[in-house]
């Protein structure tokens, strides 16, 4: 349930310390997000803003949303110039047409209903708005090594022991997005 997921992130996830490889991968992702966000809008929502440096991607005031109060407090302490909202990305607490850009980075694979989240993004984005999503890709060396590990171990390997960790392929993600969004650009970062 959403409540159990919230409790997990409040209790455990933000005490997780990434290793040097994870930090390098994250920094590559943040640098790409900075480039994409700073090309455009003033009105930006970051969904899942509590994952370490998510709110570092722009100096412009942004709105950060996270399910976890602990994550919000951590992010607000590190990046106090932004506004923070406790909420669920599948039920965004914002009016229709509120944002020029929505950033959902390494979050969609951890929600119960990704399609519901996409519909909420569509509802709250302005006409001609931009949605930026990053998510792990099964069709990568990293994904293939993870899949091999799962076969050898006989169980799913979860990133940071998160309760939901549903990786995707570009085609699967495209299938979820294309009824509601036009895909303008794809990037490969690390995985």
Plain-language structure description:
- The two termini are 28 Å apart.
- The mean pLDDT is 87.
- The chain is globular, with a radius of gyration of 16 Å.
- The chain is α/β, with parallel strands linked by helices and 191 residues long.
- It has a five-stranded parallel beta sheet with strand order 3-2-1-4-5, with helices on both faces.
- α4 links the parallel β4 (99-105) and β5 (125-134).
- The protein contains six helices and five strands; from the N terminus they run ααββαββαβαα.
- The chain has helices at 2-11, 20-38, 69-78, 114-124, 141-153, 170-177; strands at residues 44-47, 63-66, 83-86, 99-105, 125-134.
- 37% of the residues lie in helices and 15% in strands.
Helical coverage, percent range: 25-40%
Average pLDDT number = 87
Strand content: 15-25%
Strand order of the largest sheet: 3-2-1-4-5
Number of strands: 5
**Any idea what the radius of gyration is?**
16 Å
Poorly predicted runs are: none
What is the overall silhouette?
Answer: globular
Fill in the keyword field for this structure:
5-stranded parallel sheet, 191 residues, 5 strands, alpha/beta, single chain, 6 helices, globular
Topology:
Blueprint: H1 2-11, H2 20-38, E1 44-47, E2 63-66, H3 69-78, E3 83-86, E4 99-105, H4 114-124, E5 125-134, H5 141-153, H6 170-177
Describe the structure in brief.
The protein has 191 residues and is α/β, with parallel strands linked by helices.
